[in-house]
Write a structure and sequence with these properties.
Order of helices and strands of chain A: EEEHEEHEHHHEHEHEEHHH
Largest sheet of chain A: 6 strands, mixed
CATH topology of chain B: MetI-like fold
Largest sheet of chain B: none
Number of helices of chain A: 10
Number of helices of chain B: 11
Mean pLDDT of chain B: 85
Oligomer: heterodimer
Structural class of chain B: mainly alpha
Distance between the termini of chain B: 40 Å
Strand content of chain A: 15-25%
Helix content of chain A: 40-55%
Low-confidence stretches of chain B: 1-19
Low-confidence stretches of chain A: none
Shape of chain B: elongated
Mean pLDDT of chain A: 89
Helix content of chain B: over 70%
Number of strands of chain B: 0
CATH architecture of the largest domain in chain A: 3-Layer(aba) Sandwich
Shape of chain A: globular
Bound molecules: adenosine-5'-diphosphate, magnesium ion
Radius of gyration of chain B: 23 Å
């Protein structure tokens, strides 16, 4: 079994807000992700990326479709501690907001120890300590930050801690929802490099969500382009970025400011898009 | 202390530290509460007389050297009675708040956690509880348990619980929306553990400030009930009851026996409010 994730025909609809129509946040999305590979999920804000990740990790329940992670079909109704811990080992997630994604009461060390006590097969003191050092090393944090609480850390450091916490569970798949979007560019680059190293060293599969096309090529081999809840294009990242087949991808690409950026053309493409569903 | 020592200290104290120093009103209020608590704990040691020692040769004495705050209609020393009254007054308010907090936090957290119909049902229940005046609960509880300190505490506790429930629900909803809660869920933390071990400790700072403010209100409500005769019974020197008993003197033109416990209540209530408001400002700092 070399597949980490297989998602088939995933659909999620939110009930209508007052005066509006039902929101189809994710519609018939399917994709696979091989073990140790990384998939980029791109699309503009509101295209359903966050909803898709929440379905994937089990924080939301799909209306239709199946999710298989690490060879096991994820069921909505699984109870009991053993099932919860097993699900945790399948997939972990890093959230967008570096300020809200850590428990402000806990120091870095306390937070990591808390996860490891739950998830290490042998949670003896020495093994926990050794694993904490290893994790800190993985995410490029020095030991002097062990005693820091979240408010004493920068946004980039917090996201490193969040990544370390997710890795502490030793998951098969790691999902990052806009995990670097709130950080400035140089910090972004460091964390992207870190993710590549972690993937190479631990063999974890990545689902990397971003609205920033400049970032996606750095860390992902495969790409899935979302538009209004649907997956409009799939393929090898470098190829899709070089020769987009779907007009939406084309538009996304030309929207990104760069050497050949033409604001008039972006406006033109966007106007064309407003008409087509 | 040498000059060097002083300058080293001023240099070490950062500007922020100076700004953070509490205003004198806050420190005075802390001191007042400290005195009240000390009186409650050490009453028998510090009170000059027994609280119920009558002396019919010294009735309605004005404040003077023998009796610093005067005596009441039975010749009991008012200072001693106020000191001894600290214990039932403060313990009553603590019991009231503890009961209301357990009930209110439970309702609020469950409503925020379960959402949906559970939330709706609990919201209706608290609304109905809100609609009843506290006194009505007390009357209902008296009908079942007869009058006494426990009656007043339970009755008022039922009146306070919906306030705490509403407050807890609001802050719990905000807290549960934070991604770290989702992170705990993904780690496989079960609902009960998540609430007890991670959510409640995170709510505590905000909650404590609110509870300290409510403590003042609880103290006052209980004193009112005791004044009305629903709670503590003579010879207790609970402050509300003292005011009630002191009314006999007011008719005779002797204000002390009613005024002094009344002022004591007012001072302690104001002090807890000042401390509570400041605590909630300081503790509720969110990152
Ligand atoms: N909890 C929710 N309730 C109702 N609508 C939602 C909810 N979450 C997301 N949506 C809607 O679903 C659509 C997709 O949102 P989202 O998945 O957050 O997109 P993205 O992450 O790509 O910005 C949006 O139109 C959004 O308004
Ligand atoms: Mg999003």
């Amino acid at each position: 079994m070399s597949e980490a994730v297989r998602v088939s025909d995933l659909t999620k609809t939110y009930p209508a807000r007052r005066g509006g129509a039902r929101v189809v946040a994710v519609k018939d999305v399917s994709f696979e992700l091989a073990k140790g590979e990384s998939l980029g999920l791109v699309g503009e804000s509101g295209s359903g990326k966050t909803t898709l990740t929440r379905l994937l990790v089990g924080l939301a329940r799909p209306d239709a479709g199946t999710i298989v992670i690490d060879g096991r079909t994820r069921e909505g109704r699984e109870r009991g501690r053993a099932a919860r811990l097993r699900r945790a080992k399948e997939v972990q997630m890093v959230f967008q907001d570096p300020y809200g994604s850590l428990d402000r009461r806990m120091s870095v060390e306390a937070a990591l120890r808390d996860v490891l006590r739950r998830h290490l097969p042998d949670p003896a003191k020495d093994t926990v300590r050794a694993r904490i050092s290893e994790l800190m090393d993985h995410v490029g944090l020095s030991e002097k930050h062990l005693g820091s609480r979240p408010h004493e850390l920068s946004g980039g450091q917090r996201q490193r801690v969040a990544i370390a916490k997710a890795l502490a569970v030793d998951p098969a798949v790691l999902v990052l929802d806009e995990a670097v979007s709130a950080l400035d560019v140089s910090v972004q680059a460091q964390i992207l490099a870190l993710l590549n190293r972690i993937r190479a060293e631990t063999g974890v599969s990545l689902v990397f969500v971003t609205h920033d096309l400049a970032v996606v090529n750095e860390v992902t081999g495969q790409i899935l382009v979302m538009y209004k809840g649907e997956a409009v294009e799939r393929g090898v990242t470098a190829e899709v970025l070089r020769r987009p087949r779907h007009p939406y991808t084309d538009m996304l690409l030309s929207s990104a400011p760069g050497p050949n950026w033409q604001p008039e053309r972006v406006a033109e493409l966007r106007a064309a898009f407003a008409g087509t569903p | 202390m040498t000059i060097d020592g002083i300058s080293a200290r001023t240099a070490a104290a950062p500007l922020a530290g100076r700004r953070r120093r509490s205003p004198w009103t806050f420190r005075v209020c802390i001191a007042i509460l400290g005195v009240a608590v000390a009186a409650a704990v050490f009453a028998p040691l510090v009170a000059p007389y027994e609280p119920d020692a009558t002396d019919f040769s010294a009735i309605w004495l004005p404040p003077g050297p023998g009796h610093w705050l005067g005596t009441d209609q039975l010749g009991r020393d008012i200072l001693s009675r106020v000191i001894h009254g600290a214990r039932p007054s403060l313990l009553g308010a603590i019991a009231l708040l503890a009961f209301a907090t357990v009930l209110g936090v439970l309702i609020g957290v469950v409503a925020a956690w379960r959402r949906g119909w559970v939330d709706t049902v609990l919201a209706r229940i608290t609304d109905v509880m809100f609609a009843f005046p506290g006194l009505l609960f007390v009357v209902l509880v008296i009908a079942v348990f007869d009058r006494g300190p426990a009656t007043a505490v339970i009755g008022m506790g039922l009146a306070f619980a919906p306030l705490i429930a509403k407050f807890t629900r609001a802050i719990a909803l905000e807290e549960l929306a934070r991604p770290y809660v989702d992170a705990y869920r993904l780690q496989g933390v079960g609902g009960v553990q998540l609430i007890a071990r991670y959510l409640l400790p995170n709510l505590m700072p905000t909650l404590v400030g609110y509870l300290v403010v409510l403590f003042g209100e609880g103290l006052m409500s209980l004193a009112s009930l005791n004044f009305l005769g629903f709670g503590a019974q003579p010879p207790s020197s609970e402050w509300g009851l003292m005011v009630q008993e002191g009314r006999a003197g007011v008719i005779q033109g002797v204000l002390g026996p009613a005024l002094i416990p009344g002022l004591t209540i007012a001072v302690v209530v104001v002090a807890t409010n000042v401390v509570g408001v400041r605590l909630s400002d300081k503790l509720a700092v969110r990152t």
